[in-house]
Amino acid sequence: MLHQFAPAVERLGVAAFRTGQEALHGVAWMGPATVFPQAVGLGATWNGELVRRVGEAVSTEVRAMRARDDRVGLNVWAPTVNLLRNPLWGRNEEGYAEDPGLTSAIAVAYTRGLRGDHPDVWRTAPVLKHWLAHNNETDRAVSSSSISPRVLHEYDLLAFRTAVEAGAVAGVMPAYNLVNGRPNHLSPYLRDHLRTWTDHELLVCSDAGAPSNLTDAEKYFDTHEEATAASLRAGVDSFTDHGTDSSVMTGRLRGALERGLIGEDDIDTALRRQLAVRFALGEFDPALDPYAGIKPADGWDTPGHRALAREAAEQAVVLLKNDGLLPLAPGGGDRIAVVGLLADECKLDWYSGTLIHRSTPLDGLRERYGADRVTFAEGVDRVRLRLGAGWAQVPEPSADTARTAGDDPGTEAALDPALLAGRTDLPPLTRTDDPAAATELALIDWGNGLLTLRAPDGRYLSVADDGYLRASAARPGGWVVQESFRLEPHDGGHLLLHLGTGRYVSVAADGLKVADRGEPAEIVVTERGEDAVARAAADADAVVVVAGNDPHLAGRETEDRETLALPAHQDRLWRAALAANPRTALVLTSAYPYAVPEAHAALPALLWTAHGGQAAGAALAAVLSGDVSPAGRLPQTWYADDTDLPDLLDYDIIGSRQTYLYFEGTPLYPFGHGLSYSSFSYDGLEVGLTGGPADGTAVHARITVTNTGTRAADEVVQLYVREADPRVRRPHRQLAGHARVPLAPGESRTVELTVPLSALGYHDVAHGEWTVAGGRYVFEAAASSADIRRSADLDLPETAPRARPVLTRGLAAADYDEQTGTEIVDRTKTTGDAVTPTAGAGRLVFRDCDFGTGAGAVTVEVAGAGEVLLTLPGDTPVAAFEIPTATGGPYAYTTHSAPVALSGVRDLQITLRGEVRLARVDFGA
Q: CATH 3.40.50.300: does it fit domain 680-796?
C-alpha cells in the first residue's frame, strides 16, 4: 500500500486507492473540466475569497467526475507554493507569487476551498508542491539549492508553514532537487519542521520517479533498497514510481525490510498516515460523507462554475500602463484590429483540463463589439518549405480522418492530456518538384529559434512513433512536444531539426520523416507577419496586439527560459502595429514576466494576464471595453533586463539581492503594481499593538480608502513593513497584509488588517531562533511596493544587541552572516549542514562574535582536503589549518585544533580553499 497505486484489501473491505489527482487550476488529465486561470493568474487577483471559491468549484468537480470515473482521485496534488524567486523558471505559471505572505494567503484560500467546510470529512485532500526550494528545471533532478538558515526560515519554509498551520493541508510532495546537498526526499525538515506545524497526520507523496533518482541520477545511494529505506525513514509515505506497476517499489521495500534497513514500525507509520487521509475523505464512513451525493449532473460544468471562471479571469488582468487609450470606446463605434500570435488562441498548459468552453481575445471582442467592427491578423509568417531539391506538400486528409485529435471534447482522444500528436491515420507529408504545388505553411517563431509549423487546415506539423512528418496535431502539447522544430546551421545552409526526437527532417521514398542525417532545408517566406499586421492596424481606429507564450514551449516543466525578452517575431509585430496606428495596446498573455522596456516607452497602453482559462477572451474584452475596471496586481517583479537577475541556481535571495524584498535596481514594473480606470486616495493610517506595548501579540492597522474617480472599481490595499534601523540585512519592505476592496464612485471604506507580531521578525543565526528586534518599524499603506501612499511608525521596546555566544555555542559553518564563493552541503546523509567553496576558494563572515575574557584554543570539524584560515577584519591572522588528503569520503569528518588569543566582541572571517567541507568551529579556554 506504500505505492501510489495501492491495491484493494478485499478481506478488510478496503478499496483500491491512488494518491495524486492534479488540480492546479481545475481538474487535469481526466477529460473535460472547467479551466480556471493559471495559478500565477490566481495570484494576480490578490483575492483570497475568490480563490477559495475556485478551490471549492475544483474539488466539487473532482467529486462529480469521480462519481463517473473511479480513476479520478480525491487526494489532489495542489497547490504549488514554491516561490517565484526567478522569473526564468520554466514552471513560473504554477506558483502564486514571489512573496511568501501573498503565496501563503492564496494557498490557504485554495486549500480551504479544496478541503471543504465540514468539520470531519474533507471534500478533497490537498498536497502542497514542491518541498523545498524548487525553482529551476535545469538539472532539476541533480542540482542542489544552497539555502542558508535565514533564507530557509524567512522565505522558503514560510509559505509552506502558514498553509499547513491553517489546517486544510493533507500533506506535501518533495521536489526533485537537493537542498544543501541532500535530496528533498530525505529532507530532515519533514520531521523537524513540517510535522511540528499541525496536530493531524500529514501524507508525504514522492514526486514521479524521484525514488529511483536517488540511486540512478543522483547516485546518493549504491542500491535502491538503501535509497527507498532512507526516504521512508525520512518521512516519505507514498512512492510514485514506475507508473501503475507497484511491484518494483514494493520489491525494494521488501528487500530493505529483509536487510534490516527498515522495520515494520516504519511501514506502519507510513500506512497510518495514508489511512488517516482516507478516513478524512469519508471512505470508510460513506453514510456520513456529506459529499457522497455529488453527481456529474449537479457538480460539473455548472453555470456557477462557468461564471466563476470568467470572474477569476477578469480579476487576474493587470493594467501595466495607460496613457488614456483605454478603455476602448464602450459604444462600439470604433473599428478594432486584434492582431498577434495569441489573438485567436486559448492556450492550455500541462496541468489544464480539456476545454469545454473556449473564448479567445478575438472571440471576446467580437462578442462585445460585433463581428463587423473587429478585424483579425494573426501575424504569422507565411512560408514554403524546400527540402533537398523539392518542396514540402501536405496531402489532403480523407473525410473519415479529417477531425483532429482533441478537437471534440466528446471524443476519447480529448481525454488524453498530451493531445496525442502525429496521428498515423493521416498521410505523411510528401515532396513535389513544382513550387506552385507546395503547401503554404504558417510559421510561428517562439523565440531563440524555436519554431512550429501549421498547415492551412489548422493542423500542426508533428512526428509520431513511426517517424513520419504529418500535419496531424490540434496544437503543440504533450510531455515531449512533437510539434517543435529548429533550423540548425549546416554547410552554409540549414537542416530542419525536430526537437521532439532530436533528429532531422529528411526525404524518404514514401514521404518526409526524421532521420539521423537531414536534407538541406530552406524556409521561403511568401508573406511577413508584420505586413499583415500593419495592413489591419492601418484600417482600424484602435489596435490590440496580443503577444505572449505557448505554455508547452520555450519555458515549461523540464525547461527553463533563456531570456526575459519578448521573442523577436512578436517584438516586430507590436512595432509594425504602432507604426501603422499610434492607438495601439499590447496585451501580454503569458505564464511569466517579460522585459519590454521599449514597448513600455513607446506604447500608450500595456496589459498582462496569465493564460486565463476557458473565459480568457471574454474577460479581456470586458477589461478593454471598460465593462470591468482592471484590478489585478503583479505577484512578482517585472525586471527591465536579463542583467537584473542572478544565476538561476543562486537561491540566496538576501546575498544576491533577489525579489522586491532585496532588489536594489529599478524594475520595469514593481511587485504589487497594477493600474485602474479609477483613482483612489488613502487617509488616516493608524497602527498599534493589540494588548498594549507590554504584551502585544499582533499589530492592528487601519486605513481609509476612497474611490475618487467616476467608475466603480476594486482597489488592492497593500500594507508593507520595514525595520527602520536593522542590525542585520532586512528587506527594503515586506508585504504584511492586503485586501481587495470594491468601491463605488465616491465611496470610502476603512480597511483593517491584523499582522502577527512574529511577522516582523527574522531568523537570528547567532542564536538559532526567531527574533523580533526592538526599535522602530515603519508601516506603509501602498498601491504597490513602489507606490507608498501613507506611513506610520510603531516603536517596540528596545532590546540590547546580543553578540554571538561562541564560547558556549561555537559556530555552525552554515550560520554565517555573509558569504562569497561558497555553498552549503550535507553534513551527513541524514542531517546537518557543512560549507564548502564553490570554485576553489570562498569566505564566510560571522559578525559580533563574543569571545568573553579570552579564548585560547580553536577546533575545526572538517572533511575533505584543503585549507581553513581564520582571520579578523583586515585579514589579521588568527589560525590556519592545512587539511591533508582526505580518506573515507565526504562524510569522514576529523577535528583539528590550534592555539588562539581572542577576547571581546569581534567579527571573524573564515576562508576555505580546496575541497574542504567545514561543519563547525568551536572555541575553548
A: no
